[in-house]
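Box S2. Input/output pair 1.
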Amino acid sequence: MVGGREYERVAGELRRRIRAGDPAPGGPMPSEAELAELHGTDPAAVRGALVLLRAEGLVGDKGDSVTVVLAPRRTVRRSSERHQWEKDRAHAGLRERSATGATENDTGSVVDDLVFSARYTRVGADPGLAEALGVPQGTALLERVYRTRHRDEDAPFSVASSYLALDLVESNPDLLDETREPWPGGTQSQLRTVGVEVDRVEERITARPPTPDEADGLGLGAGTAVMVLRKTSIDTRGRVVDWSEVILPGDRSEAVFTTRLERW
């Protein structure tokens, strides 16, 4: 193929076959020599194709130099409509709020499918957090770090870090206790317990290469980028009441933006 892109052609053909179930998840790929003969190419192009497929999470290595097809990872579909859904649920009963949360909504899972972890830490606002939250540097904050994964997978769907001004939530001691997580209904339901109503949510999304810790923690293949979502929640008094940064793996995350337009 012109331009030295033969490996991309081979990768495309292998990708289509894998997605069609040949080989099935868990099954071994043919050897590099067999693939080269099958696709009428040389082993170097096959090796380049397999590098791409490993980065996409379609294949992985097993002992004895065997390449196997990996089961597809679950996709997170994060819609801009999730915030109104979460706000509406703040008024629902405990049973309804406990039945499903935002992660279940985004992934099509049920509560029993998920393994959830939360870590709370009290920190002082550094210059970046002070600007994001509109508070003086050094202001006491509650940092909350969340990881949720499917019970059949090793890597979480994302890593989310949320920051609240401590004086905003400390009137309810339950909001300072990580063992109370996962909180039925999420952050908006938590804020409702201290009289806070979220008026609007602003989100900014960028993409970049992962840090080594992010690549390891999210189980990313070589060359896979992360999406960085920064969310600012503003209450009805105009205060920033929550600022969050969510690191999403680029190989299995989809951001969906729905804008309701006024009719003529």
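Box S3. Input/output pair 2.
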Amino acid sequence: MKPSISTPLTNSIITALLISISTLCHAQNLWNKSGDMRKLIDDRFTLAVDQYKYLSKQIPEGETPQSFENNKSVNRDIQWWCSGFYTGNLWYIYEETKDQQIKEEAEKGLKVIMPNQTYTGNHDLGFMMYCSFGNAYRITGKPEYKSIIERSAASLATRYRPEIKAIQSWNKSKYWQCPVIIDNMMNLEMLNWVSDNGGDASYKEIAIAHANTTLKNHFRPDFSSFHVIDYDLKSKSVLRKATWQGAADCSSWSRGQGWALYGYTLMYRSTKNKAYLKQAKGIANFILNHPNLPADKVPFWDFDAQGIPFAKRDASAAAIISSALLELGQYSSIQDKNRFVSAAEAMIRSLSSDAYLAKKGENGGFLLKHSTGAYPLNTEIDVPLIYADYYFLEAMSRYKKWYL
């Protein structure tokens, strides 16, 4: 009888070889995946150069681009809450491509919105001035940009209402007494940044107070968020929990969930308060585990919208959520990190597909199709939106910087 060649030593060698082969295959797969995503992202930024050069020619003097509907460009005045996204987009595109014409247009765009640094008419100074001048300063380091950000933070701080420890979003109207919307979490980044970079320390205190008040009053036990909380400044109490852009007061408006996820992630970044990280992870799990999240991970405009699965999508929500998940992955365990980054990658891939991404010369110069602004108000339904492009570009930039 022939002796077996199987011995502990040979078994160990075979096992080691198999592990080595498996490791090499895994590494090759990761390399292929990384190369694939790098090419995808680089190609999208190349497209963005062409699209935004075209878009720049469609903007009336003194206005900023918002959308493209019925084959016509839609532009807004500089006090519209989205006025900073166009310039922010240009800075992201320039950062990746170093296209000088794009940089010149970005600098031109900053001059258009510069007067907003003293605007106090709503809470959106973060969107308007930090997405624009914040990126400009980060990339160029020009001190004049920092001064404008500091002045903008001072203007935003005037909206703080110490009675309720929150920043008032919209002014009092026949609908609201003192409304605070979940979107407002996004504007806290500018306050934190100014305080953390030599500015007035009280701005960060305001941001923390606002985040804590929102944490207390905006969320349901499942981590989903109401859109609007209306307060009574005299009694310091909540008057009602409602919506303005969602399907119902009790529904989960998709972009609002994105604002919440992004907002508590950035608050954790700035404070390292674990309560904010717990909240961000809870919101992420609500979104990713929701039975109405489509297979391509681009949400319907509301998670509880009527007519699902035929309801309109919101590409802007997917862009915001993907960018937030990529940052949340930086603060998570390996298991959670892999889950969050994989979901974000799936969203980026979906938004990069023909189903959502415009071809060169199409879509009025915007990148993404199929966003929804305010479905209940019958405005901006199934159209490109300037902030959808912003968070899409940001998500791709983050993925390339952190995960490639």
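Caption for Box S3: The chain has one domain: 35-403. DSSP finds twelve helices and nine strands in the chain.
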